[in-house]
Amino acid sequence: MKEHKKLVAEGSPLLPLILTFIGVLVMALVFVESYLELTGQPFTFLDVAHKSGLLTAYKVSNQPNRGIWHLVGWIGSACFVVMMLYSMRKHFKFMQGVGSIRYWLDVHMFLGIVGTLLVTAHSTYKFGGIVALSYWSAVVVAVSGFLGRYLYVQIPRSISGQELKMDEINEIMDDITLEIDQFARGQYDVQHYFERIAGPKLERRHSGRDGSRELGMFDALWALFTTDIRSMITMYGIWRGLKANKQIPDHVKNRVFKLIREKGRLVRSIQFLEASHKLLHYWHVFHKPFAIIMFIVMFLHIAVYYVFRI
User: Fold this and answer.
1) Looking at the structure, do residues 157 and 295 belong to the same domain, yes or no?
2) Confidence band (pLDDT; 50, 70, 90) for 187?
């Protein structure tokens, strides 16, 4: 059976793990150095760097615009600027063939979180004045980004990031169902594993014109979240059952589980497609103004510093 090249791959967990490791390592170093410098400890990492001839232009300081914290602020600001390449990747056609959108999203979130933490260290924990507006906007953007990513991946998309049409989704579902049937008719007893992924019905709460009951925003988000939790528990049970089945070869187990997971994800996406669209729209309405405020105040802060040196 052909692989579904139109569908965004779930992606290897390797990239998020690498980014997490790098982020934790860098931020541990930065915040420990922050503690050492701001509390006046006799030993700092910066002193060690100076003895090695590195970063000699930066002195130990407890001021945002002095010492290493000035550089940290620049790096944090650069993270915010570079992370916007993700938006260019989504909207400019000449960039839509460059890598999977899922990996771009992972890097986008990584830069947003690391940038916010670096700016926190750069501030030396002084959050006064108009600059605080940029900082707290960055915090809101970073925190809300987790919800945005969760909602974004609920909608089936191509590798270029374009949302798949319903006929394309149905085509993929038909291909998966065909291979599932081939396994079910084969020599291995796997049919009962596939039967466990029938998706839950979407409960509706508010009456519409046609007599149906439409789910509210918070109810839809809660239903989406709880459905994913139940799905993860079900998938874990299926995987344990497959692993314990000694009659099925490992390569068949891996393929069967991949098909179950892919079909289950598509089933959930179809059931919550309308709700996911609405939630993502509301999220954008909330998220974008804070991002705009963050950038405006950040650039004003940089301009004021270089004009007045304050």
Assistant:
1) yes
2) low
Surface-to-core class of residue 5, CB atoms within 10 Å of its CB (0-12 exposed, 13-18 middle, 19+ buried): exposed
Q: Please give the average per-residue pLDDT across 156-170, as a whole number.
A: 75
Shared domain for 113 and 259, answered yes or no, is: no
Task: Decide: residue 80, CB within 10 A, 0-12 exposed, 13-18 middle, 19+ buried.
Answer: buried
Structure tokens at 168: 């394309």
Tens of pLDDT along 213-249? Answer: 556 778 888 888 888 888 888 888 888 888 888 877 8
| Domain range for 184 | 166-205+213-271
Within this chain, do residues 46 and 150 fall inside the same structural domain, yes or no? Answer: yes
- Can you tell me the distance from the alpha carbon of 158 to that of 233, in angstroms, rounded to the nearest whole number? 27
Is residue 294 included in any domain, yes or no? yes
Distance from chain centroid for Cα 107: 8
Check: CB of residue 112 under 8 Å from CB of residue 142: yes
Task: Round to whole Å and give the CA distance between 239 and 49.
Answer: 49
Which helix (H) or strand (E) segment holds residue 214: the answer is strand 213-214
